[in-house]
Design goal:
The protein is an alpha+beta fold. The protein contains 9 helices and 10 strands. The protein binds fe (ii) ion.
Length: 267
Protein backbone atom coordinates (compact mmCIF):
# COMPACT_ATOMS: atom_id res chain seq x y z
CA UNK A 1 0.00 0.00 0.00
CA UNK A 2 1.38 3.40 -0.87
CA UNK A 3 1.70 6.38 1.44
CA UNK A 4 -1.14 8.29 -0.27
CA UNK A 5 -3.57 5.43 0.30
CA UNK A 6 -2.44 4.98 3.93
CA UNK A 7 -2.78 8.70 4.64
CA UNK A 8 -6.20 8.85 3.04
CA UNK A 9 -7.53 5.83 4.98
CA UNK A 10 -6.35 7.06 8.39
CA UNK A 11 -7.52 10.62 7.80
CA UNK A 12 -10.87 9.43 6.53
CA UNK A 13 -11.79 6.30 8.49
CA UNK A 14 -9.31 6.64 11.36
CA UNK A 15 -7.54 3.33 10.76
CA UNK A 16 -5.73 1.28 8.12
CA UNK A 17 -4.46 -2.30 8.00
CA UNK A 18 -1.08 -3.18 6.50
CA UNK A 19 -1.24 -6.94 6.07
CA UNK A 20 2.50 -7.55 5.68
CA UNK A 21 5.10 -4.98 6.60
CA UNK A 22 8.00 -6.31 8.67
CA UNK A 23 10.68 -8.49 7.07
CA UNK A 24 11.12 -11.97 8.56
CA UNK A 25 14.49 -10.86 9.90
CA UNK A 26 13.01 -7.89 11.78
CA UNK A 27 10.06 -9.96 12.94
CA UNK A 28 12.37 -12.58 14.48
CA UNK A 29 14.60 -9.98 16.06
CA UNK A 30 11.72 -8.06 17.69
CA UNK A 31 10.07 -11.25 18.98
CA UNK A 32 13.41 -12.37 20.41
CA UNK A 33 13.88 -9.05 22.25
CA UNK A 34 10.38 -9.15 23.73
CA UNK A 35 10.82 -12.77 24.81
CA UNK A 36 14.13 -12.03 26.51
CA UNK A 37 12.84 -8.92 28.28
CA UNK A 38 9.68 -10.45 29.68
CA UNK A 39 10.57 -11.57 33.21
CA UNK A 40 7.36 -13.36 34.21
CA UNK A 41 6.01 -15.61 31.50
CA UNK A 42 2.45 -15.54 32.77
CA UNK A 43 1.99 -11.80 33.23
CA UNK A 44 1.34 -8.63 31.25
CA UNK A 45 4.57 -7.01 30.25
CA UNK A 46 5.33 -3.56 28.89
CA UNK A 47 8.77 -2.13 28.16
CA UNK A 48 9.55 1.38 26.90
CA UNK A 49 12.54 2.50 24.84
CA UNK A 50 14.66 5.61 24.43
CA UNK A 51 13.11 8.27 22.20
CA UNK A 52 14.99 11.43 23.25
CA UNK A 53 17.67 12.79 25.57
CA UNK A 54 15.43 12.71 28.66
CA UNK A 55 14.50 9.04 28.25
CA UNK A 56 18.16 8.28 27.44
CA UNK A 57 19.28 9.76 30.78
CA UNK A 58 16.55 7.84 32.61
CA UNK A 59 17.79 4.54 31.18
CA UNK A 60 21.41 5.44 31.99
CA UNK A 61 20.49 6.17 35.62
CA UNK A 62 18.73 2.81 35.84
CA UNK A 63 21.76 1.14 34.21
CA UNK A 64 19.56 -0.18 31.41
CA UNK A 65 22.36 -0.41 28.87
CA UNK A 66 20.83 -3.27 26.89
CA UNK A 67 17.65 -1.24 26.57
CA UNK A 68 19.65 1.64 25.08
CA UNK A 69 21.26 -0.72 22.61
CA UNK A 70 17.85 -2.10 21.60
CA UNK A 71 16.43 1.42 21.39
CA UNK A 72 18.95 2.22 18.65
CA UNK A 73 17.58 -0.72 16.67
CA UNK A 74 13.94 0.36 17.18
CA UNK A 75 14.67 3.99 16.27
CA UNK A 76 16.47 2.83 13.12
CA UNK A 77 13.56 0.52 12.32
CA UNK A 78 11.10 3.42 12.54
CA UNK A 79 13.31 5.35 10.10
CA UNK A 80 13.58 2.38 7.75
CA UNK A 81 9.77 1.99 7.73
CA UNK A 82 9.24 5.73 7.25
CA UNK A 83 6.86 6.05 10.19
CA UNK A 84 7.56 9.72 10.87
CA UNK A 85 6.85 10.60 7.24
CA UNK A 86 3.52 8.74 7.36
CA UNK A 87 2.49 10.43 10.62
CA UNK A 88 3.44 13.83 9.16
CA UNK A 89 1.27 13.21 6.13
CA UNK A 90 -1.67 12.12 8.28
CA UNK A 91 -1.44 15.21 10.49
CA UNK A 92 -0.29 17.62 7.75
CA UNK A 93 2.25 18.80 10.27
CA UNK A 94 5.69 18.09 11.72
CA UNK A 95 5.46 15.37 14.37
CA UNK A 96 7.48 14.02 17.26
CA UNK A 97 7.91 10.46 18.42
CA UNK A 98 6.43 10.28 21.93
CA UNK A 99 6.71 6.58 22.73
CA UNK A 100 8.20 3.28 21.59
CA UNK A 101 7.19 0.27 23.63
CA UNK A 102 6.41 -3.38 23.39
CA UNK A 103 3.42 -5.05 24.94
CA UNK A 104 2.95 -8.64 25.96
CA UNK A 105 -0.56 -9.88 26.77
CA UNK A 106 -0.84 -13.45 28.05
CA UNK A 107 -3.47 -15.81 26.67
CA UNK A 108 -6.67 -15.27 28.62
CA UNK A 109 -10.44 -15.66 28.66
CA UNK A 110 -10.75 -12.46 30.67
CA UNK A 111 -13.35 -10.00 29.38
CA UNK A 112 -12.24 -7.56 26.71
CA UNK A 113 -11.58 -3.90 27.32
CA UNK A 114 -14.86 -2.65 25.95
CA UNK A 115 -15.50 0.19 23.50
CA UNK A 116 -13.85 3.38 24.77
CA UNK A 117 -12.12 6.61 23.82
CA UNK A 118 -8.46 7.19 24.72
CA UNK A 119 -7.52 10.44 26.46
CA UNK A 120 -11.08 10.97 27.65
CA UNK A 121 -10.04 11.47 31.29
CA UNK A 122 -10.83 7.80 32.03
CA UNK A 123 -14.45 8.72 32.78
CA UNK A 124 -13.59 11.25 35.53
CA UNK A 125 -16.37 13.69 36.41
CA UNK A 126 -14.39 16.57 37.92
CA UNK A 127 -12.06 17.60 35.10
CA UNK A 128 -10.62 21.13 35.41
CA UNK A 129 -8.04 21.29 32.63
CA UNK A 130 -8.96 20.00 29.18
CA UNK A 131 -6.60 18.63 26.55
CA UNK A 132 -5.99 20.43 23.30
CA UNK A 133 -7.82 18.50 20.58
CA UNK A 134 -4.65 18.29 18.50
CA UNK A 135 -2.73 16.46 21.22
CA UNK A 136 -3.92 13.03 20.11
CA UNK A 137 -1.46 10.54 18.68
CA UNK A 138 -1.17 8.39 15.60
CA UNK A 139 -0.38 4.86 16.75
CA UNK A 140 1.50 2.18 14.84
CA UNK A 141 0.86 -1.35 16.16
CA UNK A 142 3.19 -4.01 14.73
CA UNK A 143 1.99 -7.52 15.52
CA UNK A 144 4.49 -10.25 16.30
CA UNK A 145 1.74 -12.84 16.79
CA UNK A 146 -1.43 -13.45 14.76
CA UNK A 147 -4.51 -11.62 16.03
CA UNK A 148 -8.15 -12.24 15.15
CA UNK A 149 -11.67 -11.98 16.55
CA UNK A 150 -11.64 -12.87 20.27
CA UNK A 151 -7.91 -13.33 19.96
CA UNK A 152 -6.12 -10.06 20.60
CA UNK A 153 -7.43 -7.99 17.72
CA UNK A 154 -8.28 -4.32 17.86
CA UNK A 155 -11.73 -3.16 16.73
CA UNK A 156 -12.44 0.39 15.64
CA UNK A 157 -15.56 2.39 14.74
CA UNK A 158 -14.85 4.19 11.45
CA UNK A 159 -15.18 7.99 11.42
CA UNK A 160 -15.41 8.13 15.23
CA UNK A 161 -12.05 9.96 15.37
CA UNK A 162 -13.59 12.89 13.48
CA UNK A 163 -16.52 13.09 15.89
CA UNK A 164 -14.20 12.81 18.91
CA UNK A 165 -11.97 15.55 17.53
CA UNK A 166 -14.90 17.94 17.07
CA UNK A 167 -16.21 17.09 20.54
CA UNK A 168 -12.82 17.77 22.15
CA UNK A 169 -12.57 20.96 20.14
CA UNK A 170 -15.88 22.15 21.57
CA UNK A 171 -14.99 21.20 25.15
CA UNK A 172 -11.55 22.84 24.89
CA UNK A 173 -13.03 26.06 23.52
CA UNK A 174 -15.82 26.17 26.11
CA UNK A 175 -18.57 25.58 23.52
CA UNK A 176 -19.52 22.15 24.85
CA UNK A 177 -20.06 21.44 28.53
CA UNK A 178 -17.94 18.49 29.63
CA UNK A 179 -19.58 15.32 30.86
CA UNK A 180 -17.97 11.87 30.94
CA UNK A 181 -17.51 10.23 27.56
CA UNK A 182 -14.95 7.45 28.05
CA UNK A 183 -17.39 4.65 27.16
CA UNK A 184 -19.20 4.36 23.83
CA UNK A 185 -22.65 4.87 25.36
CA UNK A 186 -21.51 8.00 27.25
CA UNK A 187 -19.80 9.22 24.12
CA UNK A 188 -23.03 8.90 22.14
CA UNK A 189 -24.96 10.62 24.93
CA UNK A 190 -22.80 13.75 24.89
CA UNK A 191 -22.77 13.83 21.07
CA UNK A 192 -26.56 13.54 20.88
CA UNK A 193 -27.27 16.58 23.08
CA UNK A 194 -28.81 18.97 20.56
CA UNK A 195 -26.43 21.93 21.07
CA UNK A 196 -23.41 19.60 21.03
CA UNK A 197 -24.63 17.87 17.90
CA UNK A 198 -24.99 21.23 16.17
CA UNK A 199 -21.52 22.31 17.25
CA UNK A 200 -19.94 19.07 16.01
CA UNK A 201 -21.82 19.49 12.73
CA UNK A 202 -20.26 22.92 12.33
CA UNK A 203 -16.75 21.43 12.66
CA UNK A 204 -17.05 18.24 10.57
CA UNK A 205 -19.18 17.09 7.65
CA UNK A 206 -22.52 15.83 9.00
CA UNK A 207 -22.27 12.65 6.92
CA UNK A 208 -19.46 11.38 9.18
CA UNK A 209 -21.52 12.12 12.24
CA UNK A 210 -24.45 10.20 10.76
CA UNK A 211 -22.26 7.23 9.81
CA UNK A 212 -20.77 7.10 13.29
CA UNK A 213 -24.18 7.35 14.98
CA UNK A 214 -25.65 4.60 12.80
CA UNK A 215 -22.78 2.18 13.38
CA UNK A 216 -22.49 2.82 17.10
CA UNK A 217 -26.22 2.48 17.61
CA UNK A 218 -26.15 -0.96 15.99
CA UNK A 219 -23.07 -1.92 18.01
CA UNK A 220 -24.71 -0.97 21.32
CA UNK A 221 -27.85 -2.89 20.39
CA UNK A 222 -25.89 -5.96 19.32
CA UNK A 223 -27.27 -5.72 15.81
CA UNK A 224 -24.06 -5.03 14.00
CA UNK A 225 -21.92 -7.61 12.27
CA UNK A 226 -19.13 -6.67 14.64
CA UNK A 227 -16.53 -8.72 12.82
CA UNK A 228 -16.63 -5.95 10.22
CA UNK A 229 -15.02 -3.71 12.81
CA UNK A 230 -12.40 -6.26 13.91
CA UNK A 231 -8.93 -6.03 12.42
CA UNK A 232 -7.49 -9.44 11.83
CA UNK A 233 -3.73 -9.18 11.25
CA UNK A 234 -1.02 -11.81 10.96
CA UNK A 235 2.40 -11.59 12.52
CA UNK A 236 4.50 -9.05 10.62
CA UNK A 237 1.48 -6.92 9.73
CA UNK A 238 0.42 -3.65 11.35
CA UNK A 239 -2.36 -1.23 12.12
CA UNK A 240 -2.04 2.53 11.89
CA UNK A 241 -4.79 4.45 13.65
CA UNK A 242 -5.84 7.74 15.14
CA UNK A 243 -6.18 7.12 18.87
CA UNK A 244 -9.02 9.65 19.11
CA UNK A 245 -11.44 7.10 17.62
CA UNK A 246 -13.65 4.69 19.58
CA UNK A 247 -12.00 1.28 19.84
CA UNK A 248 -11.82 -1.87 21.95
CA UNK A 249 -9.35 -4.64 22.69
CA UNK A 250 -10.33 -8.26 22.30
CA UNK A 251 -9.61 -11.07 24.73
CA UNK A 252 -6.59 -13.23 23.85
CA UNK A 253 -8.36 -16.56 23.69
CA UNK A 254 -6.00 -18.58 21.50
CA UNK A 255 -2.49 -17.34 22.10
CA UNK A 256 -0.34 -14.73 23.86
CA UNK A 257 -0.13 -11.42 22.05
CA UNK A 258 3.05 -9.52 21.23
CA UNK A 259 2.96 -5.99 19.85
CA UNK A 260 5.59 -3.36 19.14
CA UNK A 261 4.17 0.16 19.20
CA UNK A 262 5.28 3.62 18.00
CA UNK A 263 3.28 6.77 18.89
CA UNK A 264 3.62 10.11 17.10
CA UNK A 265 2.12 13.45 18.06
CA UNK A 266 1.75 16.76 16.22
CA UNK A 267 4.32 19.42 17.13
FE1 LIG B 1 -7.47 2.44 24.10
Amino acid sequence: MNIDKITHEVKNKGIVEIKQWLTNKDKDKIAKIINIERPLKSDFYNSTYVINFKTFIKKILKLKFLNIFRSIYFNNLSKKLGLEKIAERIFDSKVKLIRIDNFWTPRSDEPVIDWHVDNAYSGRKDVKIFNEPDKNAIKFFFYLTDVSRDNGCLSYIPYSHKVAYALKHGIYNGKIKYQTYWTLSDFRKIVLIKENYNYIKSVIDEKYLTKFLNTSDLVLNNKYKEEKLDHQINSGGALIFDEAGVHRGSKTKLNDRMVLRFFYQKI
